[in-house]
Amino acid sequence: MFPICGIAFNFDKKFDIGILYLFTLLISSFMAETNIKENTRADQSILLTILRILLGLILFWKAVVFIQATAQLKSLIQETGIGVFTQNSEVLAFVVSYLGMLCGFFIAVGLFTKPSSIIQIPILIVAVFFVNIKNMDSNIFEFILSIIALLLLILFAIKGSGMLSADEYFRRGAAIDNKSQRAFK
Fold it and tell me: Which of 95, 157, 159, 161 is the most buried (most CB within 10 A)?
């Protein structure tokens, strides 16, 4: 038994040395990268952009579902057992659903990502710890999706929208205008 990268290989007499040679070539080609920082940053930027867009679409989709089933959202808010939430469930249902739609759109596009994420964090904290944890037996998917969305919101509240976003597009446009002195005054 010979462990390589956590995988146990069982070599016997018919071991093909060519496979080991190809394996070492593959590893050495990965280790021989000269632009590791640039490649990692580009890959990380693309991965974070995809995650940001997916998070925005999930928030937008959930908001549309809540708008279609407002009564269900009101009952979920009332089930929290918090007096202020229970008394104002109709207003909170309206605010949660339309803020979710607006912030989901902004996060997906990459416009005002940090403020949108910060606005959504308290909503997801209530969803995770007061609503979905009580309904975890019947719907574990909602609980896991809420936790993932909360963690991604915290990530984007800290990191921002990234390179492929409307924020960056407008930032670059403003820099070009300032450089050429053609900005509106």
Answer: 161
Task: Tell whether pTM > 0.90.
Answer: no
Q: Identify the CA nearest to 126 among candidates 85, 69, 161.
A: 85
- Asked whether residue 39 is domain-assigned, the answer is no
- Structural tokens at position 8: 């146990």
Count: domains in the chain: 1
pLDDT in tens, 123-182: 999 888 888 888 788 888 888 999 999 999 999 999 888 888 888 888 888 777 777 765
Q: Are 122 and 154 a contacting pair, CB within 8 Å?
A: no
Expressed as residue numbers, the domain containing 139 is 44-180
Judge whether 58 lies within some domain. yes
Give a yes or no: residue 115 inside a domain: yes
